Amino acid sequence: MQDFFIIKILLLTTLSFIFTILWTPLLTHFLYKYKVGKQIRNTGVTPLFSKMHAKKQGTPTMGGLLVWVTVLIFSFLFFYLAKFFPDTILEQLNFLSRKETFLPLGVLVATAIVGLVDDWVDLKGDKKGGFGVARRLFIYSCIAFIGAYWFYYKLDWDLFHIPFVGSIELGAWYILVFLFVIVASAFSVNETDGLDGLAGGALLTSYSAYGVIAFSMGKYDLATFCGVLVGALLAFLWFNINPARFFMGDTGAMSMGITLGVIAMLTNTALILPIIGLIFVIESISV
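-> structure tokens emitted (287 positions)
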């Protein structure tokens, strides 16, 4: 049975890559036509960061659309194909399930939309800087709280695994731990966006690792979800390596960062997330 799931994951990962590659020219045309160029921050507090990013001034942002839109399309496409063609191979390709992928997908899309608006306000609004750090923190904390509520009250989940120790019951404290992990993950990933291939490459390896972890736990829908993300990220990275045609923007970095945190909590491996996402930790410390 595992052989089938391996084939399923590899197939959907490949299809995700091909689909993303095919519609990249459409997004690229839009980004350059409307001049949604990246605004580089320049502060005395982070001179090294500013120096490394300065030459990327004007590079289009919002490239994260490539990834989350592809994941959204694949999720619902195979969900409805399973409904219309039951008892066929198409039904077996569905990976949208309440237990494993509803929450990651919901969080991905919700935060991506918020990030998209933030990107647009930053680029085209009267006041540069988008929503601002305080407002971003509030919005993403609210989304994270909804996720924490789902875990604690809907899934009746309050266990937190500590390597070499075991799982401990946190009770209501689980909600605060969930909030911290999710928000920290989101902002850490966002800090890596702005250098050719950095955010995309780090997310690619992180989601690949969590795909393997989910598979080893028998969470095959979640592993497939990670695979679809990996396929889309690989296509994104194809156009994001030097010289980058575009960057993720908040619509990509924040959404995939917060989703990575959700998956870490779903697999109860939050304490190894800093190891898997070491680049995100280093980048966050550097700024």
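The chain has a mean pLDDT of 87.
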